Amino acid sequence: MNIAIILAGGTGSRSGFDIPKQFITVAGKTVIEHTVDVFENNGHIDEIAIVVHESYINDFENIKLLNKWKKVKKVLQGGKERFDSSLSAINAYQQFPNYNLILHDAVRPMVSQRIINEVVEALKNYNAVGVSVPVTDTIYEIYETQSFIKNIPQRSLFHRAQTPQGFKAETILKAYQMAMKDTDFQPTDDCGVVAKYLPEEKIYLVRGDETNRKITYKEDIILLNQCQ
């Protein structure tokens, strides 16, 4: 079973938008509708679960009824932080250790079918799969307290992370169980949790796409409108 987990727990408090980004309307649909549609229409995805902040569960239930999605089986309550939302979904499927959990940001509505397909395919051979694109700009490492260049690392060694990120359910559950016992836990993304707490686990990377961008600023909404 391939389970798509759409992480829509953010409230937009730091984004500058009046409402959470996933509920902004673009080309006649909310961002989250565009995102769910991509996974609903993918032949490899068997089920979809949505993680939403408790304040917006009723809103999403209405959206779900309106769209008549067949694969959306669970609407889960998210938490304060992104990792809380991931953990909510992981716990919901912990009794199915062999399921593939494919976690995706709700505000990446332009993810391609090619990326989803390659993540699913890679999970046949690996327990953890990420998506990334090479860094094309020069990277500066700076001093922590000063705006001066400390080092210029080799650009070819760096990639920018995207989603979806896929895992065997038992793998990501084990990583998070260890993380929750760590009083110094510093969450990054889900691949980062596996990398830190299960360092022996190889994380395979699928090639991402520059169009698979995360809606962060108002300018991103303009670009999404142009692409729909």
Question: Explain this structure to me?
Answer:
This protein is an alpha/beta fold and 228 residues long. The chain has a single domain (2-227), classed as Spore Coat Polysaccharide Biosynthesis Protein SpsA, Chain A. Helices cover 31% and strands 25% of the residues. It is built from seven helices and eleven strands. It has helices at 31-40, 57-67, 82-92, 113-122, 169-179, 190-197, 218-227; strands at 2-8, 25-26, 29-30, 47-52, 72-77, 100-105, 128-134, 141-142, 149-151, 159-168, 203-207. A seven-stranded mixed sheet has the order 5-4-1-6-10-7-11, sandwiched between helices. The protein has a two-stranded antiparallel ribbon with strand order 2-3. Strand 4 (47-52), helix 2 and strand 5 (72-77) form a beta-alpha-beta unit. Helix 5 packs across helix 6 (190-197). The longest helix is centred in the first third of the chain and has 11 residues, at 57-67. The chain is globular. The two termini are 30 Å apart. The mean pLDDT is 92.
Decide which structural class fits the backbone: alpha/beta
Percent strand: 15-25%
Strand order of the largest sheet: 5-4-1-6-10-7-11
The number of E-state strands comes to: 11
- How would you sum up the major sheet? 7 strands, mixed
Structurally, the number of domains stands at: 1
Query: CATH class, anyone?
Result: Alpha Beta
Helical content (DSSP H or I, runs of 4+):
25-40%
Say what the CATH topology is: Spore Coat Polysaccharide Biosynthesis Protein SpsA, Chain A
Order of helices and strands: EEEHEHEHEHEEEEHHEH
CA gyration radius, whole angstroms: 18 Å
